[in-house]
Amino acid sequence: MAQKPRPAAASAAGNDDIGTENRLELYRLQVEIRDTEKRAYDLFLQNLIKGTSHLSLGQEAIAAGFGVAMEKGDKSFCTYRGHAHTLARGASMEGMLGELMLRDIGLMRGKGGSMHLTSVEHGVMGSYAIIGAHLPIACGSAWRAQYLGEKDVTVCFFGDGTTNIGAFHEALNFAVIWKLPVVFVCENNLYMEYTPIGEVTAVHNPAGDRASAYGLDKIVVDGNDADVVFRTARAALDKARRGEGPSLIECLTYRHSGHSRADPAKYRPPGELEEWLKRDPILIYKQRLREFGIGEDQIAAIDAESRRKVEAATEACKASPSAPVELLTQDVYADGGWAWRN
């Protein structure tokens, strides 16, 4: 049985620990992520983006909440639905859209495409198309920080379906045993591709209800409220940075579109999408800004600037040449070349 959207967490109104600057940044990121992904969809319809891609429309609060809470130098590991997290860490719209369009301006000069977005400069250590593959790698990233005595924290995002993959359990086990500075974040949008997660999982909360098996606290939060996500992220990051080990966080959310471009999402029961649209994270946060006295002119300015940036990024990507063919044989092996060596 699919979970229903929860009411907004008792919030913010009487508790301004987040502050105006962070709150404006949380809203800006959510709007820019939404506008950029909507533009990606438009470009696909214009045949300017090839293949498939997986949008996170409706899930922006999770990327924004962690993006603002994380520090420079922290590491992000994403799934194939990684556009939002890449943008939230500071990568440019031009770089992201250019990568989807396979242009030379792209983050990886068009070599990675939608499902392999990477920007080491911004701490985005890759998007991974194989379900669960990046969780053990995230442990390795965290182990490196621990071994070298560095203070960065690794954050690993994954979908609800990953919780039924062996790598999920292996990674959690090792992270706890070694007290690694890693935060695991399950973006539970209720569907593992086309199948409701509740129909194939023995527990109600696929991540939260398994935390106790590894000695971790059950943390299940409203993933459509950026303030809630930010506070939860900040606490988990601080815990990891103090050397107190990992956290497992389940964020309840919902994707507004299908699993990918090819999915019309007809498997969803009637009325479910409409109920979740009432809990659109951007609508929630726009009202949150009003509650804290942020004027309509400031909100409108952020909206307009986001649209301007998306237009400018689109034109820059259209003007960029395609990646040169010789790029295919560069960086295949560690020495930068492609020739096989025995």
Explained architecture:
With 342 residues, the protein is an alpha/beta fold. The protein has 10 helices and 8 strands. It has helices at residues 20-45, 60-69, 83-88, 93-100, 134-148, 166-177, 226-241, 272-277, 281-291, 296-319, and strands spanning 75-79, 124-128, 154-159, 182-188, 191-192, 195-196, 219-222, 247-252. The strands form 2 sheets. It has a 6-stranded parallel sheet, with helices on both faces. A hairpin with a 2-residue loop joins strand 5 and strand 6 (195-196). Helix 1 packs parallel to helix 10 (296-319) and helix 4 (93-100) crosses helix 10 (296-319). The radius of gyration is 20 Å and the shape is globular.
Radius of gyration: 20 Å
Please give the domain count.
Answer: 1
What's the total count of β strands?
A: 8
Helix/strand/pairing class, anyone?
A: alpha/beta
Low-confidence stretches: 5-14
Helix content: 25-40%
- Overall mean pLDDT: 93
According to CATH, the fold-level topology is Rossmann fold
What strand order characterises the main sheet?
2-1-3-4-8-7
H/E topology pattern: HHEHHEHEHEEEEHEHHH
